[in-house]
């Protein structure tokens, strides 16, 4: 598991990017935390810089929309899912479990 940040550092409706290989985007929406690969499966764009609406993030480059729960794209131009990761909140800290993936692109 990797540490993302303290819960109070990621307000509702916001996201953060965890650099690495692969980079991971963490989102706080609808009272939940979600983690997905940060790079859009259509083209090299950071999903953490996209627009968040409920459980969906819109890629800032070509407007592909991804479901944060499954990683699946809901519209073109993206056709491939992005990887999702389990998120654990413990003692006020957000952790991302990179050892097991919930969906594989």
Automatic annotation (TrEMBL):
The keyword Metal-binding applies. InterPro entries: Rieske_2Fe-2S, Rieske_2Fe-2S_sf. Residues 2-96 form the Rieske domain. It holds the Pfam family Rieske. The keyword DNA damage does not apply. It comes from the Bacteria. GO terms for molecular function: dioxygenase activity. Keywords: 2Fe-2S, Dioxygenase, Iron, Iron-sulfur, Metal-binding, Oxidoreductase. Gene3D superfamilies: Rieske [2Fe-2S] iron-sulphur domain. This is Bifunctional 3-phenylpropionate/cinnamic acid dioxygenase ferredoxin subunit. It comes from Lentzea pudingi. The gene is hcaC.
């Amino acid at each position: 598991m990797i540490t993302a940040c303290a819960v109070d550092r990621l307000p509702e409706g916001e996201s953060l990017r965890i650099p690495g290989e692969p980079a991971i985007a963490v989102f706080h929406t609808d009272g939940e935390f979600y983690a997905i690969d940060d790079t859009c499966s259509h083209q090299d764009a950071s999903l953490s810089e996209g627009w968040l609406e409920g459980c969906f993030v819109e890629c800032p480059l070509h407007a592909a929309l991804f479901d944060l729960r499954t990683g699946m794209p809901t519209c073109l131009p993206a056709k491939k899912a992005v990887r999702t990761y389990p998120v654990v909140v413990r003692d006020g800290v957000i952790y991302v479990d990179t050892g097991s993936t919930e969906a594989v692109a």
